[in-house]
User: What shape does this take?
Amino acid sequence: QVQLVESGGGLVQAGGSLRLSCVASTSTFSMYVLGWYRQAPGKQRELVASIVSGDKTNYADSVKGRFAISRDNAKNTVSLQMNSLKPEDTAVYYCNAAYYLRGVGGPRRDYWGQGTQVTVSS
Assistant: This one.
């Protein structure tokens, strides 16, 4: 069981920045692949960014060069720095922790935060 608590969402003007943070309650934090997902009204939830370790990250094409994901295993946190925000970034953002039962590519167990609203106005 992993509990995830998110913070940092809010209202920001286009071109602005926000930093989302998520803290996990688990003693095995380093064993999880972490990610940020988002879901806009009427759309499916999509992966924004994920991180296995400091140099192993993945980003959606729509946010490459603007967003940066990072993790601090000592503090059990994962963050998403969002710069140059656009109105199309508006969505509920969810923190995700995935535990792969038998290695990457196999069965996984997902844990989710409650979601935090990010609204970008123009």
